[in-house]
Amino acid sequence: MRYVNDQWRYTAYVAAAIVVIFTLIISFIAGGFKPTTHYIIPVGNATRPSGSTWTLFNAPWILPHGASASLTDTIMGIGFTIALIPPMYIAIVNRRFLKAVEKNIPRFLRDILESTDAGMILPAALIKASQEDYGPVSYEIGIAMTKFTLGSDYQSALTEAGIRLKHPYAPQMCLVLIEAYSSGGRLHDVIASSVTLFNGLEEYNEEKATELKPYTQLVYISVAIFLVIALIIITQFISPIQRLPTVPASIGRAPSGFSGLTKIPPTYFESIFFMTAVFEALFGGMVAGKIVEGSAEAGLKHSVLLLVVTILVFNAPLVGVFNVL
């Protein structure tokens, strides 16, 4: 198990930005996007020669003639989802690494305590414990002890190991081991108190995660409610309005360029709901990660899942938002 360093992390974000820019260009070209005075967002309602509109699950390889809002929107949504996959993967790998460090520190110290209580000197106990399976802790402490046996300074070897473990608890654990090495007869008390401390921290983090987990469900529920509301508004309000006779512009004061209320393209509303749902899925997942796991990057997995659901809901055969008008 390895920690992905910041260089690769930043590379992933640069790649994600490039994918987003490339996706926007492709979506505008493929969808025939042409911003007008009143509509900056995609509003084209082009159909194929057969008269069908373009959707992801309706012969997507046959493109419509002219501007198509559903084609532009879907390509953008898919592009955003693909762009988030590398940062999401790195965040998952790093989060798994840090959780493994946090979980194994108390177990590792407990093993050290048992070995030293049995009469083993601390360096020998560290070498023995590093041969057990304590995830990244075993690996890095093993490297530190190898350096120590080869003549490196004990304190500097452990300090470097704490830095490589990346977790905030790791330098504290290494500091405890350094102090225990120089404490002589108080070695048992130093390590025993640290075991109690790290056990308490682990229990606190688990309890906090359990208490905050419902907030993740709240984000999913809010996105689901928004998608249902969007579908209801399109099918029960916008679609019937499009079937009404044109309302003359003389009734009330219509904006310049409009001959009536029914002249507003229905795809205008679809695009608004789609883009809003995309941003809600993206930032909602990041907020869930920040609240529950303390990192917005940790919420990218929720963002990707919610984006996939959003794309499916808008493109679902027969019942998707892009299919109801």
What report would you give on this structure?
The chain has 325 residues and is mainly α. It has a domain at 104-206. The protein is 69% helix and 0% strand. It is built from 9 helices and no strands. The chain has helices spanning 6-30, 69-117, 122-130, 136-149, 154-164, 169-183, 187-242, 266-293, 300-315. Helix 2 runs antiparallel to helix 7.
How far from one another are the termini? 51 Å
- Helix count? 9
Give Rg in angstroms: 29 Å
Mean pLDDT, all residues: 88
The proportion of strand residues reads: under 5%
Shape: elongated
Number of strands: 0
Task: Report helical residue fraction.
Answer: 55-70%
Query: Which structural class best describes the helix and strand composition?
Result: mainly alpha
Order of helices and strands: HHHHHHHHH
Question: Uncertain spans, ≥5 residues at pLDDT below 50?
Answer: 257-261
Tell me the major beta sheet: none
State the main characteristics:
9 helices, elongated, mainly alpha, 325 residues, 0% strand, single chain
Helices and strands, with pairings:
Blueprint: H1 6-30, H2 69-117, H3 122-130, H4 136-149, H5 154-164, H6 169-183, H7 187-242, H8 266-293, H9 300-315
Helix pairs in contact: 1-2, 2-3, 2-7, 2-8, 2-9, 3-4, 4-5, 5-6, 6-7, 7-8, 7-9, 8-9
Summarize this, please?
The protein is mainly α. It has helices at residues 6-30, 69-117, 122-130, 136-149, 154-164, 169-183, 187-242, 266-293, 300-315. Helix 1 runs antiparallel to helix 2.
